[in-house]
Amino acid sequence: MERKIVLPGEEINLEGMKQGNGIYHENGKYYSYQMGVLQTYNNYANIIPLSGKYYPVRNDRIIGKVIDIAPSFWIMDIRGPYPGFLHINDTPWKNLDQDLNKILGIGDTVFLKVNEITESRQIWLSLKDAGLRKLEGGHIVMVQPTKVSRIIGKAGSMVNTIKEMTGVKIQLGQNGVVWLDGSADKVMAVKKILKYIEKEAHTSGLTDRVKKILEENKGD
Amino acid sequence: MRRKVSEVSKSADEIVYGLKREYLEKICAEGSRIDGRKFDEIRTAVVNTNFVPRAEGSAEVRLGDTRVLVGIKIEQGEPFPDTPNSGILTTNAELLPMASPTFESGPPSEDAIELARVVDRGIRESKMIDLDKLVIKEGEKVWVVFIDMHILDYDGNLIDACSLGAVAALLEAKVPASKIGAEDFPLPINHIPINVTFAKIGNTLLADPNLEEEEVASARLSVATNENGDVVAMQKGLGGSITKEELFSAVDTSIKVGKDIRKRVLGK
User: Rounded to the nearest 10 degrees, how much is the dihedral formed by the CA atoms of A186, A189, A194, A195?
Assistant: First the structure.
């Protein structure tokens, strides 16, 4: 199937593919929900929106910020439509002294996953998985949540290229929050590259172009 | 640094990522800024005058990604009883919700009032406009100059963007004297004040802070100077302190940057 940009309400010819994300079915025909790029993946036709807010999906790995503390859980800003909740039982910590503020304070940044989304749209988060942790040091940069998959690249090719060539530690959240750690000029360079990828996300051959830009800047 | 629970009344957008604060303090101590500028370097300033043709004067200002629109309206009105032979200057600022997720509609916020007052003070105390020349009939009718500032896009340092816009718009403004049978004339201008704002992060003063720097700043200082290098107005904001040496260096930088803006941006 040809990769092309579609508009909301545009009819889509599935060409034998199954109906994926961003497509609805009416009177035997298929239409697009949003403006985005039509792509196929594992026999599914999906529309990757060009812009939009983050919608949490189970098992997404995201970066959240503590905005409030309740008796047994933290309320986190995850840049989604609703705040997320992180219960003390879903963390590796034991609540011995009854004061959650001593474990995570307001403004603290955590790399976590979406554990469950209940019927009433409560988003429960978890820290119990490999690699999930409280983030310390480094810097936070925001990108469009819809462009995160482009920044990761095929099997992580894009983000690994950036990591290797700049030496900056990168932690990507599916919600468009990116954590960077490294020297000030390197972090600034990565920030510029992220903005470039965001802008050029719908074009092809991006990894090679990013590689070229990074190589050119290496000499400076 | 861990923040206190008492700050929970803030909205999610207003709570700063704690590690961002640490990172900015760290790189400032190392001598660099988040966008690669020098400590006394301001962002690219672009002034576009006569942006609103129906206003008596107007200017659109872009200071980096901050964008403001300033309009001047000049109308006839009664003078204040204590200054019967002097025109009136009124400044008003509006933080439009479309400019930032943290701006709310409704009555002017504290920030909007402070912004209008600081801009007003720079213009008033520098005696930029000769208000005595704006009298139509002593004690009865004078020209009232309204400065209206609209924030279109917020990326930090509204004070400098707005005062630059107000000054640029006033320089171009014409008094509509043809309405009372005389000839239109430009506003009588004496001085050109330029405001430069600093944010203190760690132990460093940064000129023209952007939004990220403003968010984590412990103190803020605005210094307005005129073309002779005289300090005409100042405003200190936020809870942190500023040392004597920092104050003097801020004044020196303000004079230097002011000169540069007058020449490069305003062409005066």
Answer: 150
The two tokens of residue B101 are: 């997720």
Q: Residue B9: which pLDDT band, with cuts at 50, 70 and 90?
A: low
Q: Name the phi and psi angles at B133, rounded to 5.
A: -90, 5
Distance from the B200 Cα atom to the nearest Cα atom in chain A, whole angstroms: 18
CATH class in words for A139-218 = alpha beta
DSSP B44: P
Q: Which amino acid is at A130?
A: A
Q: Is there a contact between A105 and B16 if contact means CB atoms under 8 Å apart?
A: no
The length of chain B, given as a count of residues: 268
User: How close is the nearest chain A Cα to the Cα of B22, in Å?
Assistant: 7
Distance of alpha carbon A109 from alpha carbon A79, whole angstroms: 13
Q: Would you call B260 helix, strand, or coil by DSSP?
A: helix
- CB contact (8 A) between residue B23 and residue A68: no
Mean pLDDT on A75-98: 84
Neighbours of B112 (CB within 10 A): 19
B interface mutation test: which of A54, A66, A67 has the most B CBs within 10 A? A67
Residue A1's pLDDT band (cuts 50, 70, 90): low
DSSP per-residue letters across A174-198: TTSEEEEES-HHHHHHHHHHHHHHH
Instruction: Give me the pLDDT at residue B145, please.
Output: 92
CATH number of B12-264: 3.30.230.70
Compute the distance between CA of residue B235 and CA of residue B204 in angstroms, rounded to an integer.
18
Q: Which CATH architecture has domain A4-49?
A: Beta Barrel (2.40)
Name the more confident of B36 and B67.
B67
Decide if pLDDT at A3 tops 50.
yes
A61-135 shares its CATH topology with A139-218: no
Q: What is the ipTM of this complex?
A: 0.74
To the nearest 10°, report the CA torsion of B257, B260, B266, B268. Answer: 120
pLDDT digits (tens, 9 = 90+) for B206-237: 999 999 899 889 999 999 998 888 999 999 98
d(CA A60, CA A175): 8
Q: What is the pTM of this model?
A: 0.82
Nearest CA among B89, B88, B96 for reference residue B112: B96
Domains of chain A, residue spans: 4-49, 61-135, 139-218
Mark yes or no for CB contact A140/B30 under 8 Å: no
Helix (H, G, I), strand (E, B) or coil at A44: strand
